[in-house]
Each structure stands twice: as C-alpha cells, then as structure tokens.
Amino acid sequence: MKKVYSARQNVIILMFLIVGILYVFRLFYIQVIDDSWEISSRKNALRNKVQYPSRGLVYDRFGELLVYNEATYDLMVIPNQVVEMDTMELASLLDLTLDEVREKLRRARAYSPFASSIFEKQISKETYGFIEEKLYKYPGFFVQARTLRYYPKPIAAHTLGYIGEVNDRILQEKPYYRMGDYIGVSGIEKSYENQLRGRKGVRVMMVDVHNREQGSFREGEFDTVAIPGINIWSSIDMKLQEYGEMLMKNKKGSIVAIEPKTGEVLCIVSSPSYDPNLMVGRNRSSNYLKLLRDSINKPLFNRALMATYPPGSTFKMANALIALQEGVIEPTTKFTCDHGFVFGNLRVGCHNHPSPTDVISSVQYSCNAYYCKVFRQIIDNRKKYKNTREAYNKWREYVLNMGFGVTYDTDLPYELRGNVPTAEYYDRYHGKNRWKSLSIISLAIGQGEMGTTPLQLANFAATIANKGYYVRPHVVKAIGCRDSLNRKYSEKVYTGIDAIHYESIIQGMVNAVTAGTAARSKIKNITSAGKTGTAQNPHGKDHALYIAFAPVEDPKIAISVVVENAGFGGVWAAPIASLMIEYYINRSVDWVDMENNIKNANLMNN
C-alpha cells in the first residue's frame, strides 16, 4: 500500500510541476515576449490619430497657384469614453445648440460606441484655440488636424472642382476611405483624386486621465507617416480665365479656349459661375444647397461641357469639308442664293449677300442656300452610295471623326457627347426608307436634331487650325514636376479629311473677319479666322455662337463663345472671342471701347 501511495503521490506532484511550468512559461511569454496584452490593457490610455496628408497643390500653366491648403481641425469623439460633462459649455464653444450637441452624440454612438468619429468638422484655428484649453474637461473628445482647399482667385470653379465628404457608396466601393474622409467630387479634384489625395498616416498617442496627449506611444514605433499629395500643373491660363469670367459677367453661356497643337485647354468659362471658396468650410453644405436651388442661373451647371446647342452656321464648314473630301464639289463650285433655298413648299431663308458663292465666299457670308445644296450633293450621291441611308451613315462617320457627337474621354469629368442623330432615329421618326435629303435638310445649316457642346465647338476650331486633326482637349499638362509633361493626351486624332481641303475653309474664315459676318471683330495686328453662328432656341431669343483661331499663320489659340439669348453671333459672341484672343496673345487689349461695352452689358434677361 505504501508503494502504491508513493507512486500516486509522484504522479500528482509531476502533474502540478508540469502545470506550474506551463503557467510560468505563459506568464513569461505574455509579460516579456508578447506585448499585445500590454497594449490591450492600456488601450483606454492610447489614441490612434489619423494623419491626413495635405492634398497636392494645383498651379496654372505658368506656375501661378490656383488651389492651396489651409489648416483646419475636426473635433472627434469616442462615445464609450464620454463621461458626464458641461454640455452647455461645449455647445457654446462650438456655437451649437444643446439639441445639436445631443444629436451629434447620438449619431456617434449609432456609428460605433468604441470607434472615433467626427463630432464637429472643419473647426477654425481660432475656435480650436479655445477648445484646446478646455479639452481636458471632456474625456472621449480629441482634436484631429487636417487641411482644407482654398482658392486665391474666385475663378475656374467648374474646372478645378471641389471635394466633399465620402458617402456610403464610396465607403463600400473604395476601402481606402473611412467615414469623415474627403474625396474629389468634380473637376480636376475628381479626375486626379488618386494623385492629389496623398496617403494617410497614423500616430499612436498616449493620453493621461485628463484627456491630454502625453506624446507618441513607444517613441512612434507603431506610427506611419502621411505622404502628401502630388502637385499638379494645369493647362489653364489663370489670367485668361479671369479675363473671360469678367467678360461673361451678367451673361449666360461659355467660353472654351484650346491650344490647337497640344489640345491643352487654356480656359473654360461657364457663366453664371460661383466662388469656389463657397464649397469649403463649415458652411459648405448650406452654400451648396443655395447654389443648387438657384434654378434661374444654375451656377453649378457646367455649360461648357454639359450644355448642348445646335451649332448653327458654325457647322456649315463641316459640310463643306465632307463635300470636298467626297468630291461632290470643288473649292470653285458655285451655287446661287435667292434669299434662301427653295424646293417646292420647303424654304430655308437666307440674308442678303453677294450671289453666287463658292466655298470661300459661302463661309465668308454664311450662305444658307449654298449649304443646303451642298448637303443634298452629299446625301444624294448615287454614284457612290446606293441609297440615302448609306450616304447618311458615311456623312455621320465624318461628323463623328471631327469630334461631334462623342466624348473625348479625357480628364474633364461629366462631359456630354451632344447629339448627331442616327439613321435609326430617322427611321423611327419618318419611317424606314421614307426619308431623303430634304427630310433632314436642317442638318445642312447645323440646326434640327444636331446638338453640340461649347467644348466640341472649340475643338472643331482647333481641328481646322491644325488642318485635319485634333489632340483630345485636357486640363492638366504635368503631374508631380513642372517640367514633366503628361503624355497621356498627346495622340493626334485625324478626321479623315485631307489637309488640302482646309485651305479654302480657312480663307473663308479669314474673309469673314475682314469683310464678312464677323467684320465687327477684326483684331488689330492679329490675323484671325472666325465663323459666326446663330443657334435656334424654341424657348426664347436665339443663342449667339462664334468659333475662331489665331494667328492664322501659326495658330496659338482656338476658341468658342456661346452667349445665350443674344441673337446673331457677330454681335456679342464674336467680339468676346476677339478680345480673348487679343488678351491671350498680347496680354492686353487695344479695343478698350468694345471691352467696356461687353463688361457693362447685362444680357441675363434677354
């Protein structure tokens, strides 16, 4: 019995020894090797602070600052760390009501009792100074620094764009973002969000019982550094943009200017516009709603990229180019005009001008009859096409190749394609095989179902200046380094029209400025080529259009101007374009009387 007892005793002692050794080893591992328990035990004394990077700066083509950053602060809260506090004092510090403070706390708890979230965003430096002194009285609250966008000049709002807080859809689609983060919503801010945003970092901070930060945990061992966003050089000419917005004050419409050889957009004016500084700070939401509800002026609507107008007479040159390429006319081909085009009961009127006209003089005087006859030659060309539909589809292919009815797929967000109707559309409208050239004759003079954007019109002017090609319009020329060009948009897009056919078109545009429909807009010491247009408007007075480029011998700028409800293109649109051209090339204008006339004109109620 004694031996049996002794054996059992040894087994029990051995088991206790093994358990004891395991406990000792585990305690050693926890206390010496593994620091996760230490961190867990101290998590109420640690705070993860997101380090938001400064967004990249945006410059104009000459290095002038268009967008920069200013410091601001978000008041953060961790609900389960909040204790009884002086709610009235907190409300007073933040200029809030008691109900607003309670509602913000309720939302924070609903989001997460344990994770930090924004209690009040975009606190000014002054308010932050007052809060910082009393923050020890509010456990669970802390301040997080970030930056906001600011604009030294109140211009180019639609092109530069703005940033806004991420929504639930973005949070689900893009794991990088967290609640309270900001993202580019429009313009350059949206197109180049990945470059501009930088990369967030994190600092693990120690805090005392009074909620005061005591420095980095373990000397920053667990910190990650925020990486600033990349700077961007836009193609925008800030001074030209500012000048264009001044000319378009109290007018509805747009100006788009492009450097023909590169496709770089020199300015995009959409009027009425707004001060981009309205879209930053604590009042951003209320300002946005005011702008959104302005149904008369629609300042948030980017007319340059999203408004569509019949191109009117500016489109006649497209038909002339197609006819020349198809061989149905020569530059010397003449047609008579008896105050318009007449066929049976159909009549398309025209103004008084010398007759007959050839290609050059038809552009110079903008003859409707000439282009109705040219359009019929294209569509009724039975030597080459077996029917109207086949000829029309070829015509439409040329038009699309010229940049109408398409988007350019560049860095201009929310760009619309306009409209070049399909043969199927006319099948539905007239009946299959029941429409002819006379059924769609309004396309001859850029009316009817045709719809173009001001960007497309400016690009068309650039295409003519380049004699048959364009480079996709874009608003950024360099990313990260001023001397590092953005090569993404350097490809030439050819129209399929031989360069030789542009010669007579350009001469006609030059003649239009010297002694034609745009004679009122001749620029001193600068040879320009231009074409007026009038877009029919079923809702009121017609819209004035004008496209041009200059200098003709070495084009530096191509431009389109649309002034809504301003009538004939030569009265308002052409002078505005000429002033813009003169200002861009000379950096001053000699035509002071016209400048003052346009500056002081109010066409909003036309």
CATH topology of the largest domain: Beta-lactamase
Enumerate the spans where pLDDT stays under 50 for 5 or more consecutive residues. Answer: none
Question: What is the general shape?
Answer: elongated
Instruction: Tally the structural domains.
Output: 2
What is the tally of helical segments? 21
Total beta-strand segments: 20
Question: Rounded to an integer, what's the Rg over CA atoms?
Answer: 34 Å
- The CATH class of the largest domain: Alpha Beta
Helix-strand makeup class: alpha+beta
Q: What's the overall average pLDDT, rounded?
A: 90
Span between N and C termini? 119 Å
Known CATH architecture of the largest domain: 3-Layer(aba) Sandwich
Tell me about the largest β-sheet. Answer: 6 strands, mixed
User: What is the CATH superfamily label of the largest domain?
Assistant: DD-peptidase/beta-lactamase superfamily
Give the strand content: 15-25%
**Percent of residues in helices:** 25-40%
Report a brief summary of the structure.
Helix content is 35%, strand content 19%. The protein is built from 21 helices and 20 strands.
What does this structure look like?
The chain has 606 residues and is an alpha+beta fold. It folds into 2 domains: 46-234, Penicillin-binding protein 2a (Domain 2) (Alpha-Beta Complex), CATH 3.90.1310.10; 238-273 and 301-600, DD-peptidase/beta-lactamase superfamily (Beta-lactamase, 3-Layer(aba) Sandwich), CATH 3.40.710.10. 35% of the residues lie in helices and 19% in strands. The protein contains 21 helices and 20 strands. Strands 2, 3, 4, 5, 10 and 16 form a 6-stranded mixed sheet that branches. α10 (238-247) runs antiparallel to α20 (573-586) and α13 crosses α15 (368-379). The radius of gyration is 34 Å and the shape is elongated.
